[in-house]
Amino acid sequence: MRDGTLPGVSESGPRVVCHVDMDCFYAACERLREPALRGEPLVVGMGYESGETHGAVATASYEAREFGVESAQAISEALDALPRKVEAATDPTLDVDEAGFYRPVDLEFYDEVGAEVKALLHEEGGTVREVSIDEAYLDVTDQFDWDDDPRAFGSRLKRRIDDEVGVTASVGIAPSMSAAKVASDHDKPDGLVVVEPGDVRSFLAPLDVEEVHGIGPVTAAELREMGIETAGDLAAADPATVGDRFGERGREVQRFARGEDDRPVEPKGKPKSLSRESAFSNPTDDSERKRERVRLLATDVGERAEREGALYQTIGIKVVQPPFDVNTRARSLPGPVEDADLVESVALDLLAEFADDRVRKLGVRVSNLSFTDEQQASLTGFAGDQGAETATEPIDTDGSTGNESRDLADGQRSLTEFE
Ligand code: DCP
Ligand code: MG
User: For the chain, which domains are there?
Assistant: First the structure.
């Protein structure tokens, strides 16, 4: 950056960065092949099977969210809030209008739909950073500048996604990645929020600090304890205090809160590890519940590795005991494998040590990756960006560790270092 240049402003003027995030993505995909589900409360469950009560909510349509159903909830809990239509139809104590539809996750199909959206973004000619199955950044500075009509560009992009793929996206357009990300989330679903270069800080200022890119619920709670409730409070806080408490990443999110973010939109490299974590709504020492959760996580990680063409030589787990005691265990294999059953059995084996312990959160990870198909690996990111937290690393932003992790618990993703 040249002296006297505003952050996010290159020699050619402020960048035009779009963040695209699909609305209730898995549910939108289900509606694509089953149009009767449109407008209905719809829950997509991971580890869920038709008619059963096990598994966890991957996503819920906005209609289902009105009943209090949310990502990472146990399906049994979701069913209490929103019974199945079929059951409501035969049970006189239930109201069919207050019931919904449940479908199991079909990642392969969602991946295809996600890839269609990404292909369309690539066609726009800018630089695309694919972040997850339903999310990407697009830098169109070379195609477009702020004197053109960014809102018209965003509308056209949304219309294309809707017409050509059949799902709705929320789009944020701003001069930086972090501001574009907040903008796309600001008016979901079907949102289009444009934040002009001079307006970033004032746009962010009134927002809850948790909405700042890279801040998850745990950090937000800590910040609130320090009297920092809004992005504006964080922007105005003493950088030394923030730095002492949260380290370099704390300073980075403070810069985001100030609208300072020079990170270029770069195409995504290959991950170094793949992981998934999930918190219990209440800590549990029930060994079968823990095993069941690890099975779900292992299946998900195994499937993702398969889709990304990743072989792994290390399988690990993470066990968080209340309040924030993070334990990791890993086992190395003699050579690289792609074997989802092995991920499950090794993960369960590693979990045995914690069979009697109270546990708040569990994670499964494969690492030491090699790729069978490099092309595919870079095209189909499932998880990735930022947000989720661990006690050891209270603030997480999309850095360059290359460790992709999805947090089933709080619906955010992270590049959390596992060890
Ligand atoms: N997902 C998941 N578990 C979570 C969060 C998400 O399996 N804890 C899956 C299902 C989502 C998809 O990832 O459809 C995309 O995640 P988002 O956080 O973008 O959530 P949605 O697209 O479902 O909803 P929104 O409209 O809020 O973006
Ligand atoms: Mg989404």
Answer: 9-23+110-257 (3.30.70.270), 41-99 (3.40.1170), 273-367 (3.30.1490.100)
For the Cβ of 30 lying below 6 angstroms from any atom of ligand 1, the answer is no
CA distance 88 to 96: 5
**CB atoms closer than 10 angstroms to residue 332:** 12
CA distances from 387 to 12, 121, 396 (A): 31, 23, 5
Residues 178 and 101: their CA atoms lie apart, in Å, by 35
Our answer on whether the CB atom of 58 is closer than 6 Å to any ligand 1 atom is yes
Residues with catalytic annotation?
A: 135
| Of residues 125 and 16, more confidently modeled | 16
Q: β-strand 359-371 against 273-284: which pairing, if any?
A: antiparallel
Q: Is the CB of 136 under 6 A from ligand 1?
A: no
pLDDT tens-digit series, residues 375-398: 443 333 323 333 332 222 223 333
Cβ-defined contacts of 323-328 (< 8 Å, 24+): 323/360, 323/391, 324/218, 324/390, 324/391, 324/392, 325/391, 326/390, 326/391, 326/392, 327/354, 328/418, 328/419
The CA 244 to ligand 1 mean position distance, Å, reads 33
